[in-house]
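Hey, quick one: can you model this chain's 3D structure?
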Amino acid sequence: MEILFVGLIGLFFAAAVYLMLSKFTIRILLGIVLLGNGVNLLLFTAGRITREIPPIIPADASTLGSVAANPLPQALILTAIVISFSFFAFLLVLTWRAFEELGTDSTDEMRLAEPRDEPLPPTGY
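Sure thing. Here's the predicted structure for all 125 residues.
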């Protein structure tokens, strides 16, 4: 089962990098979402996928058993889900505002700092 998850994690990371290298902001946002999901799946897989023993410490023991699932990655995943969703919501609003202002989602056309039709500045005095 872990081999399947490793392949899926690699697929998520590859697709995320491909989408984040695009020049369109919507594809960049989708790449960020895929990267967050890939990281969450990586954390989940690192915490051992077992269903035999729940991650509960018995009353007569002081530590968790060696074959039990690690509860720390599960807690990290819950935190990462909240953070990645809020980051995605912020970037989505930022992208929407840029689209309203500039009329495009292509980063090549978002060149307010370097307008194309203005003359070059003087080279000497």
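One thing worth noting: The chain has a mean pLDDT of 86.
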